[in-house]
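Assemble and predict.
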Amino acid sequence: MLKEGKFGYKEATSLIVITISSKAFFTSPSSVTKLVGTAGWYMTLISAAVAALMFLFLYLVLKRFSGKNIMEINDIVLGRFAGSLLSFVFCAFLLIIASINMREFTEILKVFVLPESPPSYIMAIFLLSVVSLAFAGLETLARYAKLLIYLLGAGFIIVVLLSIPNFRMHRLFPILGRGIDKTIINGILRCSFYGDAALLGIIAVSLQGAKEIKKIGLYGIFISGLITSLSLFSFGMVFPYSTAHELASPMYAMAANVHLGGFLQHLEPIFVFLWNFTSFIEVAALFYGALMIYCHIFRITDKRPVILPMGTLLFCLNLIPKGIHDVFSGYVQTIRTWGWILYFLPSIFVLIIAVIRKKKGASESG
Amino acid sequence: MLKFIKKLFVYEEPSKTDMEMGFELLEDPAESSSWGKKQDNRNNQKKENKEQAKSGEQEEGDPAEKQEQAEGGDQTVQKGQQKKAGDSQTGQEENEQKEAPKEQEENQSAEIKDQSKQEEEKEKEYLKTQLDVQNKLLNIIGSSIKDNENNNEKNKKSDMSDKETMPIAPKILIPKSIDKLAARRGRKHKENKKAKYNDEPPKVEDENNKTKEGNEEDKTKKENDNSKDEDKKSDGGNGKTYEQESDKKVSTSLDENIEYLKKRFHVPKNQDVIFREFNIAHKIPACVVFIDGMIDKSIIVEFTLPQLMDIDPFCDFEGGCPLDFIEKNVLPVHQMVRMKNYKEIIPQILSGLTIILIDGCDECIVMESRGFETRSIGSPVTETVVQGSQEGFTENMRTNITLVRRIIKNEDLITEFKIISKANNILAALLYIDGITNPRIIKEIKRRVNSLDVEYVSGSGMLEQLIEDKSLMIFPQVISTERPDRVGSFLMDGKAVLICEGTPFALAMPITFFDLYHTSEESNVRWQYGTFMRLVRIIGILLAALLPGMYTGLILFHQEMIPTSLLSSIIVSRAAVPFPTIIELLLMEFSFELIREGGIRVPGVTGNTLGIIGALILGQAAVQAGLVSPILIIIVAVSGLGSFAIPNYSLSLGVRIIRFILIIFGFLGGFYGISAGITIMFALALSMKSFGVPFFTPYAPSTNRNKDLILRSPIYNQKERPDFLNTENDMQMGNEPRGWKTTKDQEER
């Protein structure tokens, strides 16, 4: 039987940071540039702040029902049927997000690295990794994130540092981008970028109480915000606005532009590994979150038999978008802009209902 | 003279010190059949010994009691005295007997037995005579003893009443675990079958007892035969008799014991088991049993047979079962113990110990006599270091434990023993430091080892596979080392160590990945050098695992990522090669593995030469023939060197396997495929545990870490033991490990 086990805040924070910030390596930066111009690097900090605020509602719910995960809380507050329904919606949402992220990765990989490989072949290898991590369990996934975060962090910093010769400060201007109003509005809406912090509600039982969840969530959003902001800041200085919003993967392009002497050039290999590992962890975390919710709804104690069917479902969902344009302009944009509705609103809704119905779990000691 | 006769045949209960000695010997590796029960056994035995000692003191200090005992019908005593009286040998005769040939002595003892049988009718007369003699002796002993006798008379009455009805029986120390073991093997231990000294008088007693004894022996034999038949039936007649007859105990009949042992050892078909029959002090038939070649013959020839056959050592013997007397006064052997169950005795014989069977005794003496040839201590072959100890383990477990004890001279170093295989009776020793090692780890190791149900274990390699957590994992979950200093370091860290007979390796557990790439050399050099060596080793591991796969990915999928100058040289070197990259790489990797394997199997210096020459000639020839590109030779050679830098053989093998897997993944998807392969490997490795400790602790999961993992920090900064071991004592240094430094700083101020 697959057990979630317990893990510490470092592992959980690593998992959240990787899950959130991996999106910065794909199409999000160019979308942000298109929306707010050169103000993207601080717009994302606004998004992070809003997401942190939203996350506090989730924390309040978890604090109110200490020792329970969000699915159990839904059941308690809304009743078995309505609670399960809400959980099921969230499960489907996570699976869709996982599939979209996976498809986004597949398309990018096909464009830059494996142009001759069919998408389904890339997806099959991806799925193999995700399923392996899911079979190993949540504890292993968190440990993997913890182990790799140092390497990934080092890889990211190397790419940024080696790109410094390509930095042009004037490319950051106009500093307000397309206007402060657009920056703030988009900043609020794109808090969905940090919505993966809601995974903490699902894995709450594996963590050491609501206070630690709060710490993990806020730290995770803060660190992810810094990474995303730094990546937007650096690629904003490397590429002029006119070309930046056309790049499918600005960070990859930035790494490819590194040219220090005759030998130290083309740092894409470092970035490819960075890309791959973060994407595997991100999709595996979302996939495992969906798996946990599904198994909770249908009272399935052993998750292993569900992994392969759900993996097949993920693969099938990946095949739905017609092409790269559908993925980048349609699904990804929609999720990044409106994803917060399903990431954060259910917890606010549950909290309100719990207060109205005076539902309360065991208080947390200490 | 009469006193001598009395001592020769009157059996006395062993004193407290004897019993304790006996138990302590049972604690010895060779004798102990189970671990974990030591303290319980010791407590129980101490209680019994105290009780026995009380009764023993009473007996010794109370000659009148002995007299009453004799008068009350202790026929054992009377008969022995009758026999001796019948002999009525003078001092001259005794001297003559010493000089007489052994055959004559044996005949005399046989005649004595015959005479005793024929003289049954004269028993009463002899009895009277003996009583008179005893009374005279008691008068000689003196008034002080008589005072004690009077003072203790009341206390002794209850004991006497018991002793009047049955002969005194020795308490036989049987480890509790026998029952457990018997139960584990699906056999019911016959607890109700007490020693024959409890139920039956010795054979030299009177005819009535003899007949009873005979009947009971017949019953026992029948029971044994029945049980054997049942066992044979249950096994379909194939007969695993070493298990089936495990409850058989030493009989009072020497002939029966010899016959049984011969049957068990398949004598005379089996010709290296020696049965040497002789008479103790020219009187009592006995036999030593040992395996030729396993023992130090001088112990038998110089220190056992002469002492036992000679009469002089027995001049103070008071009679009864002579085991106690022999143990205490006759045999100058440093380690011996008494046993009565063949299940325990036979493994001792097989281990090179010698047993002494004595007629009339339902126990035998198991005597240390091992003297087989062993390899001397040499340098470790697989873990050589430049600075540090040059001693390595040998195949002899005793030697290995001694090597560890020489490093850790600490009374808290505990060594527990256990036979781990059923057919070849291989012994394993569990070493840990009481007060440091987490008891739960010890408990878990014992649980796993005790639960083994295997016929054959050749050594630590097989044991490792039997106790590891997950057998499908590529990485080892137990570290195997042949360095005693490394074992010492593990023990002081709070790990437990298993040393097994037959292989020069010890198994330490629990471990993490970081233990596998450490060597003992780092501790013996300054921290800068140690850190440098570890960094080189990490790079070696990465090169060994990743380089060929990365090369495949780079050539097949990511040519644009290669710097232009490097790309051009690769293209030029590959131009003449007819094979695809993957075939070329696999061909070379396989050739390299073949050379390496061949180099190990070819003996001595030739092996190394074969490796180097083979690689050079084969590589050069392959390049010249245009079969492989020169750059590939470099890739294969560098990855090979990287794998040589891995200090642990199991990890090295694991990395070599991973290399091939990653080559396949590199072929399938380039860097993307390698990333997927690495993720799958990590998913497996991170879910792996060694005795409950996750493999990548203390990094994943995070725990408080000792500063001696990837980098080697200065010795004085390594104050804490590894947190993940949950040791009973966390600190391995004081707050100021370098006290002189603090003092010096204070003085300068």
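The mean pLDDT of chain B is 74.
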